[in-house]
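Review box. Two proteins, two foldings.
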Amino acid sequence: MLKKILAFSLIVLAVYWSFRALLPTQISNIDTPDTQFSTERALVHLKEISKAPHFLGNDEHTRVRDYIISQLEKMGLETQVQEGYSMSQWGNLSKPKNILSRIKGSDSGKALLLLTHYDSNPHSSLGASDAGSGVVAILEGIRAFLEDGKKPKNDIIILISDGEELGLNGADIFVNKHPWSKDVGVVLNFEARGSGGPSYMLIETNQGNAQLMKHFVEANPEYPVANSLAYSIYKMLPNDTDLTRFREDGDIDGFNFAFIDDHFDYHTAMDTYDRLNRNTMEHQGSYLMPLLHYFSEANLNTVKSTEDYIYFNVPLFKTVIYPFSWIFPMLIVSVLIFVFLIFYGFKKGRLTGFGIGKGFIAFFSSLIVSALAGFLLWKLLLNIYPQYQEMLHGFTYNGHSYIAAFVCFSLAISFFIYQKFYSANNTANLLIAPLTFWLIICAALAFTLKGASFFIIPALFGLLCLFVLIRQKHPNLVLMAFLALPVIVIMAPLAKMFPVGLGLKILFVSCMVVVLIFGLILPVFGFFKHKNRLSLFFLVMSIWFFISAHTNSKFTKDSPKPNSLLYVLDSNTNSAVWATYDNLLDDWAKSKLTDQPNPALELQKNTIGSKYKSGFSFTKEAPIVQLVKPKIEITHDTIVDGFRKIAVCFTSNRKAERIEVFSDSTSIFNRATINGVSAKITDSTNTVFNNRFNNRLFSYYVTDNEPLDMIFTVPINQTTHLQFYEATYDLIGNSLLGVKNRDKNMIPKPFVLNDAIIIKTALDIK
């Protein structure tokens, strides 16, 4: 009994350790030596930067830019501001203003570039984490580096970019227009997609990552959190960073360092100085300083490679790397060992066909029941708590309670099912099924998702456990628990990472990960006679976490409800409506939309650009107020080479902050130039704006009240239909419209055009 208690305790401690080792536990204070990074010193800058939303084009954005420049100049660095128009692949046009500085090195080789962005997401995010944390990490890191007084071998370029939130626009003009971009050898980019948790290292490269990983390991950051699976998933998601422009346009390699937990704060008014996790900020510094010192001296001509490496982090060993070329040999060896052990087990009389069959029933029952429970239970919860669907990013404020509840529920299911198949000498038989499934997964990954091939490491330790079980009827359970450590420390964090990174809709994957881990811990749990007691314990824990989630399911001041309201005036029909993206209207929205709003059928035809392609849900007739309408002029209209070339100038007379331009599918655009930037040509049709979503051509984010100049080339006999949505973010407090401030338990809904007064104007060019 004592050994069972020790083994179980060791497993619990290993789970705790697997998470505890991901982050620093103490932050560096204001008295940290000047040559070292101090989180508290960095936070002094963050408080100044994150006082208010500072999106591209507003006054606060200018103040933040001036502050950053002043801090760089206090360090004795010369700065410059690069600006120019850019249209992103997302269809967003803006004029970013990048902050640049350069520290000269003693050599003439490639330069190290430190990268982050200073613009917050329009219009309500304070941008403390995204990416104020990156700005202050670089400011403090450079200060500490310069304090050391050592001249670097390589030049160090500092790029605090602009317009990242709109479509990587600042990175675009740097990579494609600034002469310094040709000097860059490697990039360190600091980002955020939440306000806490460990910072994941994600590589950006067009070729192999082998040399990058060798350099990373040699730089030896203290708390590396990195695995090649995370980047494989990252590449499949629409979550580009500035570093994407360096890779795609400049073939420049680099590292992203991004934390993603507390995702509910992402791009919201809750992305504040107070909510940024201090240990997370310390983690960013723990990456920056060793990598800054290392890459300022390294040969940056050696970062390119045609070979890929598997990589993952484990406590004590930090980052483990090995070549992709090992994947199939390791898989083949594992399969051969497995086959040998099966024959060996039958020969020794430790394995039987009947016992193995029972093991397959137990394992697949646990896996299927847990996955189905995870999938269906979350669907049920969305029906019970419809307010969750107002959080567009899919991670609720009580999301961590749900992760814990689903994990415990899967453990309760696994212990309950395996209790039915317990016998004193059947553990070796029970281990065959999970090992079979693990090896099948590893084989599938070897062909389809090579970055996840480090899953073979836990499988190899599982094979070692099987060997011990065949050799010994009563193995030392503490030894078995030690052999189970790799599957725990490597895999346990994934049970949390998947729903944090991909949303709670993916909780069923966490349930499956739990069963996979459980399967390889059977060399310990298989000897527990009274698994039903543990099943009951985890069921009670699951219920406890569900109760905790329910208790925290309501929106409060600390976990506010995202909502939306806009005023849309149609200048052509002289009519107006209130509009919202919300599906569950609260009292604030109902004050204008009433209890009986109308479906937003007309407005749905034109979906304003947003990350999740969210369309309007409801409208209600609104009073007509006198707004200063924009000036729209056709400044040029001629025939060139058999096509009609039209120039249109749109000038806002009320200092618009955003202009959306739409045209229905009957309008064809052969070419287009917007404020001097050419729209991308679709190769298959040799036209532009061919694959527009819900009629959207592009969005223009206005700087310095500059007009929108468009030159279109269209078929000669076409009637071209254009619709403009000119938006200002001044709905709240507007005396003409009487929209009151939100309650304290509400915030503006992120990812959409919100709190806006819109003038909708149609232009038909016949």
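Next protein.
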Amino acid sequence: MRQDLLIGIDAGTSVIKAVAFDTAGQQMAVATRPNLYHTLDNGGVEQDMRRTWSDAAEVVAELSEKIENLADRAVALSVTGQGDGTWLADADGEPVHDGWLWLDARASTEAQQIAESDGIDEIYRQTGTGVNVCQMRTHLRWMQRHAPELLDQAETAFHCKDWLYFCLTGVRAGDPSESVFTFGDFRTRDYSDVVIEAMGLGGVRRLLPPIVDGSKDSHPLTASAARTTGLPQGLPVILGYVDVACSALGAGIYDPEIRPGLTILGSTGMHIIRVPSADAVKLNAERSGYTMTFPSSSYLQIQTNMVATINLDWWLELGCDLLASQGISRTRRDLLDGLDEQVLATKPRSLLFHPYISHAGERGPFTEPVARASFTGLDQKVRWIDMARSIYDGLALATRDCYTAMGPIPPEIRLTGGAARSLAMKKILADALGVPVRGVDQAEAGAAGAVMLAAVQQGIYPDIASCSEAWLTPRLQDSLPPDASLTASYNHLFKAYIDTRQAMPAIWRTQAQMRAALP
């Protein structure tokens, strides 16, 4: 029987997915399972590592119920997953503790200590990545101080996808994107002992696994993982790059002619450009953003809002709560239906919303763990729909803030994530950025990017450029152009947005002290 299918696992924050594609990039089937995590009183957010593996294995097994002879037709399996966080395993391969997610906010003090240390300039120069509360490096600092017994028990510090790769292959590894932006030098694409020592983590250097590039190397599926997933023992398994890098690849960032930007608006907001070499990487004075190694010797530069559509979720939940207090039962989906039309019927006005609703603060294009969301410019003429419009506007202006930190706004923005389904969000983004916005008809961009790496590693395509051309060009949607008159309005709003944002840090810190003092 012909081997003609590639399988991708994408272990996201909300959902774990297994997706099958044919070798031309057509999605054949998907199996999903809701992800589960729990929040602690100290700001921790943790996930059961064993359950994450069992869920991942089960969604792969479910694909066999949807695709006949999947095991015989599979060429390779590739895995990606949510970024940052810390997943510790011992020498026997057993979890030391639950995995810490990128949502975990307990290490804010440690993030600030690293950011204010004497070595921060060298750390940022080498990693090209700002320090924030959600990263493994800040988590390990917290553990050194508050839970050294976890580190004593640990043999390896994984990220989410690395843990799943270990469960599939028995190989302890990290990928070039996440390992390097956390602990390395993007120019050498390897760990940097200078960076590790500067962060005070020399004592846990032993926990960092070897780096494996999934565009070049694979390892075989173990017998035990084969029994669990229903796939054949020895099937090549590829360690994908971190989910945002795979999503960028799967959504069309690799276009050397247009050189587009890519915005992923989901729970978080990711704003991405690809640059051709290390020399083209642009660092910024605020020491923010991510620099990720990417296949073909290129790099991704990323500015990432801590949360994006969660701001709108919060607003809709308030509406649901208000209606419930009057005995009216509505869901967020009920309130979202028709909201696009209502928002587009309004116009941008002087009301501003800064979308920093996360209790972990903000990380792009500035890093401030105590940043908080706010409306400014309220008066008695403001209606509920005006405030909803200002949340859409705030997400678009935060996107512009991020792109501006990386240089000129790209000539086209490609949009994916949950917000890509919103016509209002696409139009407001185009108007606020002043460039066309184009959707990509690739529902599972993260899994697609992971299996594109597998397609190159397995020799189905000679390189990423040819794979991207074959997979993405037919899936590009029509672009939505900006309205020049509205772009002019957003130019004024953006200046006010930045001026307000830059005036807020002292207020945020005062409020943080107030929160700490309150019972």
